[in-house]
């Protein structure tokens, strides 16, 4: 089911991806599966949000669940970066910078360092 949800996400069938995860929650017993499932839901919510501030904030919270519950997951850094990108899109530059800095420090492979430099240089 996780694979089907990822395929739906890649095919831009965002609601289907969410439905696949929600319909199979009990099947995700391993921590990495659970982190993946949370990330897929967050990513789908992010794509469905468009420019809706409330929905973007909900997507940011969904990404932060990955970080909070699975900080050792390979997806935690990407979740922080995506949360920062949402904050940036919402005009919350200080929050975005803090999240990018956290991602750069805790998850160097996340690529957040370039975002930190960009925001620190006023861009």
What do you see in this structure?
The structure is a single chain. Helix content is 74%, strand content 0%. The protein has 123 residues and is mainly α. The longest helix is centred in the N-terminal third of the chain and has 19 residues, at 31-49. The protein is globular, with a radius of gyration of 14 Å. The mean pLDDT is 95.
Give the overall shape: globular
Task: Name the beta content range.
Answer: under 5%
Largest sheet: none
**Radius of gyration from CA coordinates:** 14 Å
Count of helical regions: 7
Structural class given helices, strands, pairing? mainly alpha
Distance between the termini: 40 Å
Helix content: over 70%
Helix-strand layout with pairing:
Blueprint: H1 2-10, H2 14-22, H3 31-49, H4 53-69, H5 76-89, H6 93-106, H7 112-120
What attributes does this structure have?
123 residues, 7 helices, 0% strand
Compact summary:
The chain is 74% helix and 0% strand. It is mainly α and 123 residues long.
